[in-house]
Amino acid sequence: PVFAGMKGSAIENFSCVIYNIFLMNCTWQAGRDAPGDTQYFLYWQESREDNQKECELYIKDENFRNMGCIFQNVSIGTEKAYFLVNGSSKDSLIQFYDEYIDLYKIEKLMPPSNITVNCDEIKNDCMIQWQRPKISHSNKDKCFKYEINIKYK
User: Fold this and answer.
1) CATH number of domain containing 30
2) 85: containing domain
3) Calpha distance 106→17 (Å, rounded)
4) 5 in a domain, yes or no?
5) Could you report the per-residue pLDDT of 1-51, keeping only the tens digit for each?
6) Which residue from 144, 127, 83, 107 is spatially nearest to 22, judged by alpha carbons?
C-alpha cells in the first residue's frame, strides 16, 4: 500500500535550497511518532531519464540520525525533480515521504558583484554599475529586478 508504515513516522518539514549555483542543501525533521531508532534515507532524481541517486553526504543530528543532505554538482533542468525520503526502524515500518520540486524555484541567488559607483559632483549625478549574479538555469537578464537604496550622510 502507498501509505504502509506507522502513522506519523514519515519525515516532516522537508525543504531544499540551491546556492552557489550548484550546491543543494535539503533538511527535514523526524516524524512525530517515529521510533527513536528510525534512520532516514534521501533519494532524488533530476529528471525521468536520470537514475535515482542516494544522498552521499548526510547531515546528522545529535542521535546520529540523517536529518539532511548536501548535494554537489546539481544542475537545474526544466523538469521537476523527484525527492523520496524513506526510513527504517527495527520496531516498525516507516512511512515514506515524496515530493516533486521545480529546482529553479528553490535557488537562492547571490548578490550582485563588482559594484562600482562613480559620482560627478558638478553634474550632481552618479553612475552605479554591477554584474548580475550567476544562476544555473538561465542567462537572461530579464529574470532580474534590482532595487537601489541610497542613503545620504
Assistant:
1) 2.60.40.10
2) 12-105
3) 5
4) no
5) 556 788 999 999 999 999 888 899 999 999 999 999 999 999 999 877 788
6) 107
Q: Which residues contact 37 (CB under 8 A, 6 or more apart)?
A: 89, 90, 91
Domain count, the chain: 1
* Cell numbers linked to 97: 515521504
For 50-83, b where at least 16 C-beta lie within 10 A, e where not — what string? Answer: eeeeebeebeeeeeebbbbbebeebebeeebbbb
Average pLDDT over residues 118-132: 87
Instruction: Flag whether 66 is in a domain.
Output: yes
Tell me which residue has cell 533519494. Answer: 43
Q: What is the pLDDT of residue 37?
A: 93
In a domain, 153, yes or no: no
Question: What is the pTM assigned to this prediction?
Answer: 0.78
143 falls in which pLDDT band (50, 70, 90)? low
Residue 84, domain member (yes or no): yes
Residues 85/14, Cβ–Cβ less than 8 Å: yes
